Amino acid sequence: MVTCALVTSRTGPRLIRSDARLEATAFWEVTTFLLNGALFVLVGIQTPAAVRALTSISLLQATMIAAAVSATVIAARIAWFCTIPYLIRLVDRRPQQRQRRIGARQRRPLAWAGMRGAISLAAALTIPATTADGQPLAQRDAVIFITVVVITVTLAVLGPALPAVVRSARFAEDADEAAEEQLALRQLAEIRRGGREGRAAPSAENRCTGDRA
Fold first, then answer.
1. Looking at the domain assignment, is residue 189 inside a domain?
2. How many whole angstroms separate alpha carbon 59 and alpha carbon 116?
């Protein structure tokens, strides 16, 4: 699926008409919104069930483990964005790599936007309930409970603070976007002008034909 999406994104503008791309984009935006909503409904439905099904360890132990996992997930993402870019700079000295560099302030939203969602819950639910010999799989209920808590914590802690983190990054205005918009407007104007000239030419030819007749 990922390979298909990459190929489509690269070859789509050359093979698919613009009106078809606009319709497809609108369709997939709505579909993605509905699927994301359905997945988070699944998270809400699964939360009470995960609490009721927790029997392998106590609720206090599972909550402490979930809190530790949540802190580890958040800290690991922040540490990654605070260290790995500098290692890449030491290894990759190409000019094009230097052009893609951003400062620590601009990396802050990337490090903070580590919310977990329904994909994590779906991965936890794929754990089989029984082993190969038919015995119940030990602590599967604890894994599901911890996953639900991690999702809730990352959404409740990281999500509300994300707008403030983005504002603190002080991103510069995207000049390329404005330039692309101006280019698109000029091309549209040229297309319209060419269309008017194409309609005017046959009418002139018809007038000449009428004069000769």
1. no
2. 22
